[in-house]
């Protein structure tokens, strides 16, 4: 037999309207009554009927979260943070992994819609799917990237690239490599190259290792990096800036296979400042996950609560922070 507010009222002597106010967090409740009701609820393990609440408020209290890669701890940290924020606000996260597959990503979006989520949080992989998603009119926020037409919150990747370059230049490095995505689309590289240029250092494209075509498996990515280093073994950079901490970690292992030590022979700066960087003491550019997640949730709540209200989209860029650890050092020391 299910426990109802009527049962609670009978057991505690508190009126049903007062119990309702207590369950909904209304502060204007007699303290004695509140304690009495909450203690009884804890004792019997009562939970409000969420289905009835959903019907009453025309809300599923579900948020769909789609990320492109569960092997990257950065996205795991986003999931955990958003899940905690949602739980505190009585929302449940429905989590999907697009596996960097645009077809699967669209299937994830359609599943969210079929399950009647109140809103969607996306770490997008495909521009094509975003163009289709915007036509569904479902409240959506984009995390970690700034995308036209969507409320978006992300760290400033160009500023992050500039921070990495500035740090390595200050350590005396001039011959610096970059490992990341497509040269045409990677804001981290744009900022990195611009800072080098500001300091009269030319970036050699021989030092650019693109892994955008090898990002589905570590084995393929490692092969791309290894092959590139073999071809340029006589003129290796004294430092590398990598697109994320996973690449930084893989690079450390590959350089070790070449008999090179980090940071004595080669310095490395990663990106994201995940548990990998913290554990292995990798110098990294921090993305403030808690800030990104909380701001994204606030933006999504605005859209959910004001579906019919037209307003301009918000693009919020946060400042990155560099954490110096053991993978970078002054050149010549």
Describe this structure in words.
- Strand 1 (62-67), helix 5 (73-88) and strand 2 (92-97) form a beta-alpha-beta unit.
- The protein is α/β, with parallel strands linked by helices and 333 residues long.
- The chain is built from 13 helices and 12 strands.
- The mean pLDDT is 89.
Annotation keywords:
single chain; 333 residues; alpha/beta
List the helices and strands and how they pair.
Layout: H1 5-12, H2 16-23, H3 31-44, H4 50-57, E1 62-67, H5 73-88, E2 92-97, H6 102-114, E3 119-122, H7 127-133, E4 140-143, E5 151-155, H8 157-170, E6 176-180, H9 187-198, E7 208-210, H10 218-231, E8 239-242, H11 245-257, E9 267-272, H12 275-280, E10 283-286, H13 289-305, E11 315-318, E12 321-323
Parallel strand pairs: 1-2, 1-3, 3-4, 4-5, 5-11, 6-7, 6-8, 8-9, 9-10
Antiparallel strand pairs: 10-12
Helix pairs in contact: 1-3, 5-13, 8-9, 10-11
Q: What's the short version?
A:
The protein is α/β, with parallel strands linked by helices and 333 residues long.
Determine the number of helices (DSSP H or I, runs of at least 4 residues).
13
Fraction of residues in H or I helices: 40-55%
| Overall shape | elongated
Structural class based on helices, strands and sheet pairing: alpha/beta
Order of helices and strands: HHHHEHEHEHEEHEHEHEHEHEHEE
The major beta sheet can be summarized as: 6 strands, parallel
**Average residue pLDDT:** 89
Biggest β-sheet: strands ordered side by side in the sheet: 2-1-3-4-5-11
- How much of the sequence lies in strands comes to 15-25%
Calculate the terminal CA-CA distance, rounded to whole Å: 74 Å
Using only C-alpha atoms, the radius of gyration works out to 25 Å
Q: How many strand elements?
A: 12
Low-pLDDT stretches are none
């Amino acid at each position: 037999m299910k426990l109802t507010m009527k049962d609670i009222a009978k057991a505690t002597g508190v009126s049903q309207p007062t119990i309702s106010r207590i369950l909904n967090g209304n502060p204007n409740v007699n303290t004695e009554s509140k304690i009495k009701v909450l203690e009884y609820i804890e004792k019997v393990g009562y939970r409000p009927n969420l289905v009835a609440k959903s019907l009453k408020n025309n809300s599923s209290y579900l948020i769909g979260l789609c990320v492109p890669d569960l092997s990257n701890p950065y996205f795991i940290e986003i999931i955990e943070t958003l899940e905690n924020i949602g739980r505190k606000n009585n929302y449940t996260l429905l989590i999907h992994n697009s596996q960097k597959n645009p077809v699967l990503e669209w299937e994830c979006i359609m599943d969210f819609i079929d399950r009647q989520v109140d809103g969607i949080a996306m770490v997008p992989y495909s521009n094509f799917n975003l163009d289709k998603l915007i036509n569904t009119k479902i409240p959506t926020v984009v995390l970690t990237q700034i995308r036209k037409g969507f409320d978006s919150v992300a760290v400033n990747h160009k500023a992050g690239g500039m921070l990495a370059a500035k740090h390595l230049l200050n350590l005396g490095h001039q011959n610096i490599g970059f490992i990341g995505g497509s040269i045409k689309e990677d804001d981290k590289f744009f900022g990195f190259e611009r800072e080098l240029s500001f300091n009269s250092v030319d970036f050699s494209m021989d030092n650019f290792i693109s892994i955008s075509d090898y990002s589905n498996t570590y084995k393929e990515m490692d092969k791309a990096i290894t092959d590139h280093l073999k071809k340029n073994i006589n003129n290796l950079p004294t430092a590398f800036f990598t697109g994320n901490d996973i690449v930084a970690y893989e690079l450390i292992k590959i350089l070790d296979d070449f008999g090179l030590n980090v940071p004595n022979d080669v310095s490395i700066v990663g990106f994201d400042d995940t548990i990998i960087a913290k554990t292995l003491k990798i110098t990294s550019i921090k993305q403030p996950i808690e800030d990104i997640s909380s701001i994204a949730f606030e933006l999504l709540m605005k859209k959910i609560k004001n579906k019919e209200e037209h307003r301009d989209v918000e693009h919020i860029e946060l400042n990155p922070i560099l954490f110096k650890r053991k993978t970078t050092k002054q050149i010549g020391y």
